[in-house]
User: What shape does this take?
Amino acid sequence: MQKILIIEDDPSIAELMRDYLEVAGYATDICLTGIKGLEAIRSSAYDLVLLDLMLPGIDGFDILRQTRSQTDAPILIVSARHEDIDKIKGLGLGADDYITKPFSPGELTARVKAHLAKVERLKSLYAAPEPRQIKVRGLEVQPDARRVFLNGKEIALAQKEFELLLYFVRHPNRVFSKDELLSSIWGVDAVSDSATVTVHIARIREKIESDPADMQYIETVWGTGYRFRA
Assistant: This one.
């Protein structure tokens, strides 16, 4: 049974999440403070984390900063903060999705299912034989090792950044819309926030592009989407 951690300081909301997720067949743990949530992520293996931002002790942003490199489990922010800056910050720190309160319990469950299904698909994909490296000019992507090098120097990418870049290099010179990338990488439908894609592409570009005015790898095709130049 897949196990989900709920980090939420409002007991009524946490229990609502738990009830719906357990009906859907998931095991759940609840932490009501940021400190307890941080300890739980570090001490136990969870398949997915639901994370509030406004928490006592340590807030959700700090939890993301401290744990994103330690777990590959999807982390979904569930917050009353509606501002774009909070969404951009959360996604930039490595969150996989952003759900605003009040939320539909059915939508929450659907998002959880979609992200967990995406993880399973990726596991199957990585189990298949992969080339040891994909080289495009000075950029080298190693699918098996999940490492990226630019002109011989290793580049540190967050999980979703790596998956997005790998998807691009596997499909060079093809234009993808934000909705297509959202569906392919995050496993959620087009009604989700496309800012997720924008933020992750911006972070990848910061790490692999030397000139923001002259993109060598990930191009913007205005009015359509993005293309990886091979």
